[in-house]
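Collaboration report, partner site 2.

Our partner group contributed sequences for two proteins of shared interest, and the home lab folded both. The records are reproduced in the order in which they were received, starting with the first partner submission.
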Amino acid sequence: MKQDKLVTAVRLILTTSASNRQIGRDVDLAYNTIRRYRMLLEQHALTLDDVEALNESARQALFNRRGAAQGERRVPDWPHIHRELQRKGVTRTLLWLEYRDEDPDTSYELSRFNDLYRAWAGTQALSMRQQYDPGERGWVDFSGTLMSWVDPATGEQHRAEIFVAATGVAGLLFATAVPSQRVEHWVEAHCRWYHFAGGVPRITIPDNLKSAVTKAGSEPVLNPSYLAMAHHYGTVILPARSRRPKDKALAEGGVLVFLRWVIARLRNRVFHSLDELNTGIAECIDLINDRTMRRYRQSRRERFEQIDRPALLPLPERYEFSEWVGPVRVPPDYHVSIHGHYYSVPYRLVQQQIHARCTPNVIEIISHNARVASYARSEVIGGKTTDRAHMPDHHLAWADHTPERYLGWAQGIGHRALAVVQSLLEGARHPAAALNSCGNLQKTARTHGAERFELACGRALAIKSPTVKSVRSILQNGLERHERALAITPALPSHGNVRGPNYYANPEVAHAD
């Protein structure tokens, strides 16, 4: 307390009839403090001259004993307390109890203990102002706050993650909505950001999410798909330290600006697609980047164009996301599972390890740094895509064991062979039950030739026995020759003097001897 306040309060107490509250208001002291001064003056029968004759220390000792006693309090070991608070489960209240138990008479009360600790900790949390070169760095993060859009066909609500980035010294803001934090969406958001800025910062600083960093620490291990994207654009990935938000202060600040100027502005709008949501976000981001900042009297975009853009790396063609899967050991059925769908590889690679490079449209199978298979990507979970060239001969033969294949084969021989195969398939309870018979027919045709086989099928149809056994018996006994003779005997020309079989079948007609 200042000395002039104390002396002024004593003078007013002793020389006026003003109340304690009125004196307190006049000298800016608490009512209880004035009341205590009055009690001490009466207790010691002091006059104004007695008070003025005392030196400052004596006055403080007389009128402010609590303040004098506080000067004798034990100062806690703040560095020790700060270290102990980093341990799990340790609280300030626990540490205060331990401090008080050492000597209750000289210890601070809990509220004063907390106030003094906060004041001490505030002197330790120093920040170093960083100076970055123009266009050198860009900061990226997810906002942590989801936005949504509604499917107009079903009414289903979909959530979207918000990617936020700040570029260069100017801190040009960018934001976009993506379906999730998966690595393909994380990479896609970076591509949109680089093309929005029209260039690439030399250093990109992300957080330690799994899509960016597979193993955090002093030597972080980057996600291979994320690293491939960085190599394409020529930027260096330097993840921020874990639980060190100051390492990406511009990204944190960008997220705060986004929450206030985008999410709050769009809170009452309903979007019906992800593209529509991104259109709304882009409109708000343009307003932020074009708004004049009082500190610089320029907008973010103006400062970016003047300072950062000339220093950015040139923008290459747009990166096509690719994700590496593997190593994967090839099972005995020579089909490997990539994102839930099974793709064939050459059967000779069974029990070997392969890798897969996955883009949004293509799956490439890599073995010993060589591509051994390539497929259009399928999203059918549990489905199978097979290249016949990857199958061994006996598997290929079994794969061809289908009704369609046998019908096509028979059609290539002739209509009689086709009729026999159709009869076998239609006569079975299920077409699969006649496949072995069709296979035996094919073997018989290879043994005796297609021409004889076609004639034998015609003979079997004529005797109404279109079976494998009948066709085989006809061929073994050469009975198909009758069909050949019928096929090659020319028909007699029509003539009035030629009697047909009907003539001789009629008993009423007199026949010449």
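Second partner submission, folded after the first:
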Amino acid sequence: MKFQKIIVFCFICVSLISFAQSTTYQPEREKTHDLVHTKLKVDFNFENKTMNGEAWVTAKPHFYSSNAITLDAKAMLIHQISINNIALNYFYDDKVKLIIDLPKTYKKDEEFTIYIKYTAQPEKVYQKGSVAIKEAKGLYFINADGSDKNKPTQIWTQGETEASSCWFPTIDAPNQKTSQEIYITVPNKYTTLSNGELVSKTKNGTNRTDYWKFDKKHAPYLFFMGIGEYEIIKDSYKNIPVNYYVEKEFAPYAKAIFGLTPEIIGFFSDKLGVEYPWNKYSQIVGRDYVSGAMENTTAVIHGEKAYQKPGQLIDENVQENTIAHEIFHHWFGNLVTSESWSNLTLNESFANYSEFLWREHKYGKVNAEMHLYDEVKAYLNGENDSDKHLVRYNYDDKEEMFDLVSYNKGGAILHMLRIYLGDDAFFLGLKEYLTKYKYKTAEVHQLRLVFEEVTGKDLNWFFNQWYFNNGHPNIEISYDYNTLRKTVTVNVIQLQSKTFKFPFAIDVFEGKKRTRHQVFVDASDTSFTFSYTKQPTLIQVNADGSLICEINENKVLSDYIFQLENADNYAHRREALLEVAIRQTDKVAFEAVVNALDDVSYKIRILALQKIDLINKSSKKNAIRKIMKMANSDVKTLVQAEAIHTLGKLTDPELKPIFEKGLQSKSYSVLGKSLVSLYYVDKQAAFVKSKELPDEVRKILATPLTRIFIEEKDTTELPFIAKNVLEGMFLTGDDVNKVLFQKAFKQISESNNSVAIQNVVDDMVVKGKQFKGFNFDKVVINLMRNMIQDQKKAEQPNREKNIEIIKTAMAKLL
């Protein structure tokens, strides 16, 4: 499972959230029975949003003899339960647990098959989702009645954490493994996707039954069905089919979006020393999907954010990390599964770290460092996340495990372990772990034992500290120089209450000559002394950026300038740039920011463009010329776009040709920034261009266009503005934009334009549900209440109609 991009909402809504620490012990699900095989036959009632099902569940007692079995089956209508055509007695406990009496007492490993005829009613399921997975009803009908002409009719399933039992009876626990086969009957116009191999298609009038078979064992939460009108774009890895299921509009771009999949599979197979273990790899895009993506074995589903046009892909494929993440799950999560949700780190931390591994392989060290920095920063900024253990046996709800600790911090911990053990030992350990527990389940202690067996090291200290405890080091650094002995002593003081042990990389710079020292910190107050020939120009601690920590040290401007120009790690250059940028009245500091425009990291270049001070521009012509060159020819279009944006702030008509050239760019980011920059030197030209853009481009460039339409007070565009105003109010991160969009929202709220009112509340419902885990539903409900008050005050012909539109939307969230 991959998080959606929700971090910004963490900061917006954090005051609304309560993070009570739980003391409820959550054991692994007791295994009274083991699933062996699951056979399903299903068809759908689109009008009622229900599914007719038949299930043959084969199971056996795990150890103790048994004359009854309990299955998870949520909100179903049960029509018949039998074994060998003999009806069985059962008790349906609160429509959640199906307790079935068996015809005899079965002994350990004695298999039996129960037949269940039922109707799944996903709309009647009442279990909450999580921050990562916003709903948990298992089976989803999208635009089932076809009333929305702008949205296709689709059906898809989402099993994690325990929602597969919303559409078929099973033992819905991660410590179960079963093979499966599914017969899916749908109207002929629909394509189906499920786990494993499509064995046959059988037509019956206007309907067709697709038979999918999966012979290997995996957890019930990984079962999947996807149904809709899709184009199938075929690819392959070696002799394994790799297919992309997309809507017709995106078929020409499917390989541009997903085409690295075979290379990623091959890279992970080689890196892990374990060949891809399944018979196919398919990816499908689902509308209104409840998360970012899900690793259903051989049948991954992505949210519609995956859909991108060439003008977006040229900037950055925003789904690439997610694609790698879900592929890696096919080893960590699917081949070897977390034994319990408490051990979720064995699934999600590995998948998170796979993004770093892929970027390091494909794009190099700096790119991977940028990614790791963003992941760790999100964890460090997470409200109360530092109080949570990575392995948590105490929680109120399993959904709480899907957080920045299980994902971001866990991935960074794996990176620290890799640095400590070395690549050879780390990846051999992963190979041994995957080989030993393939098609089984595991817990973190078993991972530790494998690494200890491979390396001969005791790793209890590492796992007890990072997996079974919380927090991270908060370090104070100081330096003592002995000029007579030519030594420098680096003092490391841990400020947090408990003491961490950790390897620590320290770079000593003598001029531009860098010497790296690897030390080990094992006390709350530790010192390390290094000799030097020439007075050090900089001491850089945590030099490789691998330690999850917060560091406090006193540095002067000259230290930061040197660090910006010479530090090895992206995070340290970024830190230095931010410090140098606030002191640009110093000429040397300004020149250091200008030099940062050449940094190998495109994110440093973008940050330098955002921070550079071009006041008194007449004295900074060389810097402006440099930015003009970047706007025309930087290798990264995102940097070109930011350069154009920076030049646009100068409101200099002489720069108009650069903005006009940007309007011809294939990059949508360059086009969008060029429009806004042109607007400030030639409003009419930018406005005309904005009105001429095709609808598909207007949708993608919603933020810059909305800004122009707001400033032009173009009321004819209120319906368009309404679709994007929430994005500008809460997601841009730009204070100027936020004020502008807030004014636009107020204008819509008071307007007579029912279409605009409908568009804005529709967006509020979608985002309110999408970010419910951060209580954003409460934010938009309050906004809707204010809209009702605005409408009551306004003397508008459509006032009553508009109020009813708003109230109807509120009801969907309350």
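Feedback sent to the partner group on the second submission included the following. Confidence is low (pLDDT under 50) at residues 6-20. Residues 345-363 form the longest helix (19 residues).
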